[in-house]
C-alpha cells in the first residue's frame, strides 16, 4: 500500500479514479523526496502554483517550482494526504486536499487535465499554515 493510500481514508480515495490518485501520489511523493523526475511526470507543461504564504502571495511557474524543489528550498517533508472534495468533468477534475506535515498544513486546490498522456496537474492554488 502506498503512503498516500495508507494516510488517506478509504472513502476519500473513492472521490477520484485510480489514475487521478496515481498523479496525486506522484505529487505527494515527489515533493516529499524532492524527486524532480516524478514531479515532471505529474505536472502539465503549463503548471503553476498560486500560494498564500505567511510572507504573502506567490505565483510560481513550473520551472521555478521544480528549481525550488531541486534546491531543497521547498518540500522534503513527509506529509499525510487527505482528500476533501473532487469535481470531475470529462477531461478536467478539481481536487481539494490537505497535506499535513510536522511543521505545516497545506490546503491545496488542484486542477488536473486529461490529455493524450493521461492526467496531469495544471494548477495548484494553495494556502500554507504553519503549526506552532
Q: What does the secondary structure layout of this molecule look like, with pairings?
A:
Blueprint (H helix, E strand, L loop, with lengths): L2 H5 L2 H4 L4 H15 L3 H7 E11 L2 E6 H9 L9 E9 L3 E9 L3 E12 L2 E13 L2
Parallel strand pairs: 1-6
Antiparallel strand pairs: 1-2, 3-4, 4-5, 5-6
Helix pairs in contact: 3-4
Please tell me about this protein's structure.
The chain is of the alpha+beta class. The chain has a single domain, classed as Nuclear Transport Factor 2, Chain: A (Roll), CATH 3.10.450.50. It is built from 5 helices and 6 strands. The protein has a 6-stranded mixed sheet with strand order 2-1-6-5-4-3. It is globular, with a radius of gyration of 14 Å. The termini are far apart. The relative contact order is 0.20. The N terminus is likely disordered.
Amino acid at each position: 500500500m502506498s503512503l498516500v493510500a495508507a494516510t488517506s481514508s478509504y472513502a476519500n480515495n473513492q472521490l477520484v479514479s485510480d489514475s487521478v490518485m496515481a498523479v496525486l501520489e506522484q505529487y505527494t511523493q515527489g515533493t516529499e523526496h524532492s524527486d524532480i523526475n516524478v514531479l515532471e511526470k505529474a505536472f502539465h507543461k503549463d503548471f503553476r502554483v498560486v500560494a498564500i504564504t505567511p510572507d504573502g502571495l506567490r505565483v510560481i511557474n513550473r520551472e521555478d517550482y521544480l528549481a525550488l524543489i531541486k534546491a531543497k528550498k521547498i518540500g522534503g517533508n513527509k506529509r499525510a494526504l487527505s482528500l476533501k472534495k473532487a469535481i470531475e468533468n470529462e477531461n478536467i477534475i478539481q481536487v481539494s486536499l490537505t497535506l499535513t506535515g510536522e511543521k505545516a498544513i497545506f490546503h491545496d486546490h488542484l486542477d488536473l487535465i486529461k490529455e493524450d498522456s493521461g492526467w496531469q496537474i495544471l494548477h495548484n492554488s494553495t494556502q500554507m499554515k504553519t503549526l506552532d
